[in-house]
Structures are given as C-alpha cells and as structure tokens.
Amino acid sequence: MTELLTAAQMRAVERAAIESGEVTGLELMERAGRGVVEAVFEEWPDLARAPHRAVVLCGPGNNGGDGFVVARLLREWGWEVEVFLYGDAEKLPPDAKVNYERWREMGEVQSYLDEGDGAFWLDPSEWAPESLIVDALFGTGLTRPVEGFNQFGWATQMSGWQVNGRPVGGEQYPDARVVAVDMPSGVCSDSGRYLRSDGQGRHHEDIRAHLTVSFHARKLGHVLADGPDACGRVVVKDIGLSQSADRQIVREVVASRRGGLGKRGGHKFGYGHALILTGGSGRTGAARLAARGALRIGAGLVTLGVPPSAQQEVACQITALMLRRVADAEDLAEVLEDRRLNALCLGPGLGVERARELVPVGLGAEPSRAVVLDADALTAFADAPERLFGMLHGACVLTPHGGEFARLFPDIAEKLDAAPRKGPAYSKVDATREAAARAGCVVLFKGPDTVIAGPDGRCSVNSAQYERAAPWLATAGAGDVLAGFITGLLARGFAPMQAAETGAWLHVECARAFGPGLIAEDLPEELPRIFKDLGL
Length: 536
What we know:
The protein has helices spanning 7-19, 25-43, 45-49, 62-76, 94-104, 147-152, 154-160, 227-231, 285-296, 311-315, 329-335, 352-364, 376-379, 385-391, 402-408, 410-417, 428-439, 478-491, 496-514, 522-533, and strands at 2-5, 53-58, 80-86, 110-112, 132-136, 177-181, 211-215, 218-219, 233-237, 250-252, 273-277, 301-306, 322-325, 341-346, 370-373, 396-398, 442-445, 449-453, 459-463. It is α/β, with parallel strands linked by helices. Strands 8-1-10-19-18-17-16-15-14-11-12-13 form a twelve-stranded mixed sheet, with helices on both faces. A seven-stranded parallel sheet has the order 4-3-2-5-6-7-9, covered by helices on one side. It is elongated, with a radius of gyration of 26 Å. 51% of the residues are buried. Mean pLDDT is 89; it is low at 114-120, 148-153 and 159-173.
C-alpha cells in the first residue's frame, strides 16, 4: 500500500517538516524544481543531451515558485527559456517571490493580470517538436475554476498541441511535450475532476500533460475520475518529507498482500466453504463464473445453490464445484444450518425476485457469515435501500458498479455526479466512504478507479490505470468473477476489507497477465500464474 494524499494532507506534511526545523519552504521548493527537471530528463533522455527550448507557465502561488526554479535550472543547463506569470509578482507568496527574483536575474517574465492588462499570446507554431511546456500554474492548490486563464487563451492553445500523442481541438501544432507540476491546471487534486464555472463537462481548453511530476506521494486526483487522462504519466519525486500519521489517508493498492494467500497443507475445510446462489434455467452463467473464481482463489470447497429448473443445466457444466438444490428461502435456511459454510455470495445472475426472497435469509442466518452482495442482490432493494441496510452486518461486502451504486445511494450519487464548481470537489472516495458508513459494511465501488471503503473510514483505491491499465477488463462477467474472488478470500478467513482489496488487485493482475481478447472465463485461469509469480 502507498499513500494517496489530499491537498490539505500534503500541506500538513510540509508544514510539520518546516515547523520542526527539518527543512525550510525555500529548500522544499528547490527540491521540487530539481525533481521536475530530473523527471523530464528521465522521461525524455534526448532533452538531457543538448539544450532545447522551453516555456514555463507560472501561477500566482507556490506552484509558480516551483516553475521559476525549473526555469532557472533549465537556463543553467543552456536552454532557451521563456517564462510567463499568470498574476501579480508583488502578490506572490514569500518563497515563490524569492525564486521569481532569482529568475529575474537571468531572464524576463511576461505577466498577465486578471484585470486583462498586458495580455499576450503564445505562438507554438514557431516551436520544434522537442519544445517543452511546463505547466506550473495551479498544482494542488486549485479551489476555483480558472476562468481568467481560459479567457486568456493559454489552455486553448495548449490543448491545440498534440497532448498525449493526439491533437485535441483547435489547430494542429507541432508536438510539444507538456509536463505538469503536481497536477495539470484545472484539475482538482482531491477528486480528479475538472472544476467548471459553467457546470459543463470537459472543455477543449483542458490541459492534458504527457508527464505529471508530483512530490512525496501521489494525490487522490492522480488516480480518480479525469485525473489519469489529464496527467499522462505520473512520477513521484522524493523531497525528503516524513510519512503522515493521519489515519484518514487513503491507500493505493499497489501489490497483493501475500500473507494468507498461499496454502500450507491441512484439510480442505481449513480453507473454507463458499456457497454461491444461482438464478433459474438460462441464468446460471454469472454464478458459475463467480464460483470458479472462488475455487481458483483458494476456497477449500465451493457449492452452487441451484433452483430445480436449473439443476440439470448446472450439473452438465461443473466438475470440481458442488451442487445443492436451493429452491426457495426455506431450502436456503436448511442449507445454512451447516456451520462449515462460512461465506455466501448472492447476486450474480440471481434474478431480482429470487434475490428479494433469499437475501434476507442469507443475511439473517445464525451464525452470521461473510456475505458478498453483487448485481441483482443490490438492484432488488433499489426501491427500499434502507431495508437492505437494516439487515447488513460488519462481515458484508457490497460490490456495486456506478448504476447499482446510484440505485442504493441516490443522494450520494447525485452529489458525485454534480458538476464541481469549487475545490476540493466531492470525490469518489468521499462517496464510497459515505456509503460504507451508511451501510455499516465494506463497499467496493467498481471502475478503473475502484474505491474500497470500510464503515470505520478506512479507504483504498485499486487503480487499473497508467502502467496497470487493463481496458479489456470491461467485459461481460468480469464483475461476477470479482465477486467470486472476494467470496473465496472471505471463505479462507480474510477480513472483509482485506478480501476486497486483495480480490480487486488480483482481478486486475489476471487481466493484465492475459491481455487483449480477454473474456470473463479467462480470469480465474490466470490465477495460478499470478500466484506462481508471487512466489506462493
């Protein structure tokens, strides 16, 4: 796990270091600027071999101060550097003002004020492909839409360049390379969402970088919502700060917890017995996918609970899986008298009416079992989510996608979908935490930026983006397999939060291992290779 910080948490880390005398703000700014230059040369080694041309766009805060450091270091490297300031130099924060003055000893600064005086226009058509644009305008401190910035035209021009290897709006200009300091300007660092004064979606003015250089730790906005598309690639540079002790920090799931995944002998019942309920005839595929996932991830036994109409269909499709007739609530209650059944999955292909009948039995059985609710088990309570919340307990995991989340938590989804007009904007992390607190159990909110939250406020993000991108995971049945992975881990004794995090991480690793052309059936079959690579 690694930290994902909000802007406020990052400021607290910096403030603690400065107040302790460990470092000064000016030293942190110097380290940040050097980190940007290092990252640029690491990303594009050809730029380090000879001087080139750069334009550095500096904002009115400390992010702009980082930009002045970058400009000075590139000039010392022999580069031709142009510097532009969006704001009034006299109003710069003290450390940024020092670096502004240091740059002024080397070169000019063209300024643009919000009042509209002294406006200028960049002309990227004059630049060669190796030109570098440094976006040091707003970084993590942005709290309002950059209205004057958009009117001024910088963003419009920058989006006209082939950002991320493709032209985006406007005239096609030479392929300049764009590096953002902390965050591409206009993106809220806490939510990954573009701040809008008019409440609309993406604009052609949006800056999207090839490379984003952050400091100390990734920010939430780097992995949520529009952040990954805006950032291009994210590099984190160490600037000598200590880790935060804030318990509300969100963690990024970057590697599976190996502890407990391997088997060390023993009886099959020592690894749990999972029960996964199916729908009727013609609707058993989703549950069978989930069951295969639970078995492959190491549950000792997995049984499919099948209605009479589907018994023959399922019996013809399974071998290592077991089958048990579960026609109705009475049958399920009888099956659950077996205390060795310690994990239950309801939802994949279950059918809404069957879910309404069986979910209360599964949640109300004694003793309480670990339960995964997915798909139809969530939709079945869309008209009365409070009824479901009243039955849930701490050993449950809900795994909604966006539509299912909106059915269960319509007011939370409405806040998340509202166009952000100020920062920090309401984020998917905020939404999932609020949902988990209301439900009283772990909620896994699916997507390329899967967010997992517990009712106690613990939260993590499993990001299938950047180097872990697996777009082929968007295929029918993939979510059913994920539900099975989590159920199997719960059967093995994993705590709900750990089961959700580990299952989600393995889900993405299986997709990445298989590659394009993936279908849901392939996911469980990749687990042996993943386990072998983990040394299990």
